[in-house]
Design goal:
This protein starts with a strand and ends in an 11-residue tail after the last helix. It is globular and about 40 Å long. By secondary structure, it is an alpha+beta fold. The chain has a single domain, classed as Alpha carbonic anhydrase (Carbonic Anhydrase II, Roll), CATH 3.10.200. Helix content is 15%, strand content 35%. The chain is built from 6 helices and 13 strands. Strand 11 and strand 12 form a beta hairpin.
């Protein structure tokens, strides 16, 4: 177990939270969601190493569960037409209820935010200052009667991170990001989220089709950390 690097935490999880959420007590201002209705009709691709498994840490961010890559030397990247450069994978985390979803019965879905940083910036704090700094790939997991053995890699660590907030704890098994990332197709669309008062923006690619199923027990375990308690759409 290792304590989360202060710069790392403020660079990504806290920044994404600041851009896209309100906390209890309205500590942060509301967001403005700008959705470009044009569907993705250009070539957007992940790097060839997307199928390569890597070691990762899980952390209790108090308001959500986040998973950080421990392999910064060969990060998975995303690039292509319509994007403002090449972006490298940093972390993913969860939202409930779904914040940027137009899916009916959205309370049956766990939204997954997969966070990428533009490779021309050193860290999240630097990227945060620029319109092209951060890219979010948004997708969902559907809650069904079928439990997901891959998702148990996270669920098995929930008791540990519930005790230790803001400490990175290694996952027992490696992460293969190809399992979590949606296929970029014409079912996806571009958009951006803006924290109005703080003038902060992150671009996103939203893919509506769920990437996999999880069962209610798995969902409840992740949600117990705090998502749904202090994440609200506005």
């Amino acid at each position: 177990m290792r304590q989360v690097n202060k710069m790392q935490s403020s660079s990504f999880a806290t920044i994404i939270f600041m851009i896209t959420n309100q906390t209890l007590g309205n500590e942060l201002p509301p967001i403005k969601i700008n959705i470009v209705t044009k569907r993705v009709d250009k070539n957007i691709e992940y790097s060839r190493n997307v199928n390569t498994s890597f070691k990762a840490d899980i952390i209790n961010e108090n308001y959500t569960v986040a998973v950080y890559s421990k392999d910064p030397c060969t990060p998975v990247t995303i690039s292509g037409d319509g994007l403002n450069g090449t972006y490298k994978f940093v972390q993913f985390h969860f939202h409930f209820p779904s914040q940027h979803s137009d899916i009916e019965d959205s309370d049956r879905f766990l939204e997954i935010y997969i966070v990428f940083l533009n490779t021309k910036y050193k860290n999240g704090e630097e990227g945060f200052k620029h319109f092209d700094g951060l890219l979010l790939v948004l997708t969902t997991a559907q809650i069904t009667k079928t439990c997901n053995p891959v998702f148990n890699n996270l669920v098995d660590r929930i008791p540990d991170i519930r005790k230790d907030i803001n400490h990175l704890i290694p996952l027992k098994k490696d992460i293969n990001l190809s399992y979590w990332l949606p296929k970029i197709s014409k079912d996806c669309y571009y958009g951006s989220v803006t924290n109005v008062n703080r003038n902060a923006t992150a671009s996103f690619v939203k893919c509506v089709k769920p990437v996999f199923d999880i069962c209610q027990d798995q969902f409840d375990s992740v949600r117990s950390i705090g998502i749904g308690r202090n994440i609200h759409s506005v």
